[in-house]
Amino acid sequence: MLAFRRHDHAYFWDGSRVPSVTEVIRRGGSYGGLQFVNQAILDVTSDVGHLIHERIHDHHTDDSPLATGDSLLDGYLTAYETALAMLPMQVFHTEVPVGNGLVAGTLDLFCKYGGEWAVGDIKTTSRINVEAVELQTAAYAWLAEPFFGVRPTHRFVIQLRSDGTYEYKPLRDETALIRFIQLLEKQ
To answer: Could you list the residue range(s) of the whole structural domain that residue 177 is in?
Structure first.
């Protein structure tokens, strides 16, 4: 059974530590670019990202309003609210730990998108590493099937921006899951 330890973002399957999807991708060299960014900047942006994900989860769990009154967060949350209104997306679950004994991760969105079961990832970074997100969402779709009983056939990323705008990108690389499993097998 899967357990997630939030304070250090560690996953365990039947008591044994398993790597996260992000760890597998990072060790495989597909995350790229972040090694050149000042660690203090990465820590602040990571904290902001976590707060935004928590707010989105609370909104879908108990209908909490997205707006916080915090100028640092509200632009991103406005962007998400706009995406919800504009995209053909019906969200069923958010921030769900999924795993299979080999690897685990927390998927941001499990939803229907245009009538198809989908997994979506939310990013608040200024640039998206599409290669890494292709691998990440392919892994989440694979891991989601046993948890939800359906295999998501659509994957996407929504990039939220601090100015209240967003960009939706469908992810269509059909080789992404095979490449993710190859990375996993090398570790």
So the answer is: 2-185
